[in-house]
From TrEMBL:
This is Antibiotic biosynthesis monooxygenase. The keyword Oxidoreductase applies. InterPro entries: ABM_dom (IPR007138), AI-2_Isomerase_LsrG (IPR050744), Dimeric_a/b-barrel (IPR011008). SUPFAM superfamilies: Dimeric alpha+beta barrel. PROSITE patterns: ABM. It comes from the Bacteria. It comes from Streptomyces hoynatensis.
Amino acid sequence: MTTTSQAQTPVSLYGFLTPRPGHAAALRKLLLDLVEPSRGHEGSLQYHLHEEEDGRFFLYEVWRSQEDLDRHQATPTLRAFLAELPEHLDGQVEAHSGTMRSPYPAPVA
């Protein structure tokens, strides 16, 4: 019998970031500079940045497992990002996470 552990269940993170007035370009660059390194981390299935018409940024991430997400969050790249982030934000990040319940598609060969 095969069982699926929590560690093998995809986890998603998503949220909105509102730039402080005059900081939109700096926040955009900070967020864009995080995309490719994050996509290269083990277990990254999706990593997307969107810019809304109202000026907010929307991040959407899917990780193969909570363990992969935890490793990503412990990287020097992400820690440096998080240290710089507050100076560019107007308020708090509106962040959400959850366990993916729909099947994640298998990679196309």
